[in-house]
Amino acid sequence: MIEDFDYTSHDRVFAPGDVFLGYTDGLFEASDATANQFGEARLRAYLAQRRGVPGAALLEGLVNEIVAFTGRAQFDDDI
After folding, report:
1. CB–CB of 65/23 below 8 Å?
2. pLDDT digits (tens, 9 = 90+) for 32-65
3. Domain-by-domain residue ranges, the chain?
4. How far is residue 12 from each of residues 9, 19, 20, 56, 76, measured CA to CA in Å?
5. Which among 41, 52, 47, 50 is positioned nearest to 18, based on CA atoms?
6. pTM summary value
């Protein structure tokens, strides 16, 4: 957290089965060998295809998806 930063807040109601995914920009910015970034569109597509998947499996699959996309298991930034 950054002192004196003007943060925004949002209220959401969660229903059973909803998922909250916290992440950093390192997830979007993970890039392949030609500098294409994983990006928000790939994240949304991944999540849309896996509705109802339990949290731990969802996260493990997401990391595997990023590893497959980037071609490496080590990242330049946190994901």
Report:
1. no
2. 999 999 999 999 999 999 988 988 999 999 999 9
3. 25-70
4. 10, 12, 10, 22, 32
5. 52
6. 0.78
